[in-house]
Design goal:
single chain, 291 residues, alpha/beta, Rossmann fold, 2 domains, six-stranded mixed sheet, two-stranded antiparallel ribbon
């Protein structure tokens, strides 16, 4: 009898093979690149280049900046940093969408021979799965992700602590880091995210439930804060309340966008209303266009 994580992985593998593999053939090679180890050539520096690749001897000799070019590794080291806080359990979709997206991405990367690891975080505890290759590694990640999280109630998520943990855990080698979170939590996460993006290529996958952006008009309901557990009775048909909520949502969205700009990281919004694998295809297309 197969376990729930194994059934999840088998289903995603079948869907990846049927709907995604052909459309993303070689995508990890052209979109997300390895660290590179073999020097191949020199060329003039452009403003988009990493200053760490400047060849200072040639620059001094020719009196203009030149950068070294490298043959990029085919193999990547990828990390999945997954927010498992209480807010990610909002409704019935955010947690499962985050889990399926994480497992599908890990399987897609692992089948190309890449090493994949994971950092699973909530305020109460964290789990680090060191990077390894192969299907068994993805299955181990699926088992941890489908295990019930003991996310602490009574406090908002410390996203800064999650990102600092990611930075310290992944410091040994330049990696591809996926951050899977709703980014609902304490402010001040932009600085740790900036530090993480200075060292690694960071891809933010923000899980969004449309109900969090626009409260449906369903009359009088009891609303509970997923993180603090605070409950309040609200009249969703009250126009003043709806205007105030829209203003608060707009302010939060502006703050998140500003934090992403500060960290020089692109946010990919993943809606719980959209098929996970369709979101994955769109993610790679957007990343390829930016390249």
């Amino acid at each position: 009898m197969t376990s729930a994580p194994d059934r999840l992985l088998r289903r995603l593998e079948w869907q990846l093979h049927r709907r995604v593999d052909g459309r993303l053939q070689g995508a990890y090679r052209t979109v997300w690149r390895g660290a590179g180890i073999d020097f191949t050539d020199l060329r003039q520096y452009t403003p988009d280049d990493d200053v760490r690749h400047i060849d200072w001897n040639v620059t001094a000799r020719l009196d203009e900046p030149f950068v070294r070019q490298y043959t990029e590794d085919r193999e990547l080291t990828a990390w999945m940093v997954v927010d498992r806080s209480a807010s990610m359990r909002f409704g019935a979709a955010k947690g499962p969408v985050g889990t399926e997206l994480t497992v599908a991405l890990a399987r897609l990367l692992a089948q190309g021979g890449n090493r994949v690891g994971a950092i699973l975080y909530d305020n109460a505890s964290s789990t680090v799965i060191p990077p390894r290759t192969g299907r068994n590694q993805v299955l181990r990640m699926a088992k941890e992700l489908t295990r019930v999280s003991a996310a602490a109630r009574g406090a908002t998520t410390d996203l800064g602590a999650m990102l600092r943990l990611a930075a310290s855990t992944t410091s040994q080698r330049r990696s591809l880091v996926f951050v899977v979170s709703d980014f609902i939590g304490d402010p001040g996460w932009d600085r740790p995210l900036t530090m993480l993006s200075h060292r690694h290529e960071v891809v933010v996958l923000r899980i969004v439930d449309p109900v969090e952006l626009e409260l449906p008009d369903v009359g009088l309901i009891l609303v509970e804060d997923a993180e603090t557990g605070e409950q309040v009775l609200v009249d969703t048909s009250d126009p003043l309340l709806r205007r105030r909520l829209r203003a608060q949502v707009a302010s939060r969205e502006d703050d998140i966008a500003a934090g992403m700009r500060t960290a020089a990281v692109t946010e990919h919004r993943i809606s719980t209303e959209v098929d996970v694998l369709a979101s994955l295809v769109q993610l790679v297309r957007e990343s390829r266009r930016r390249r």
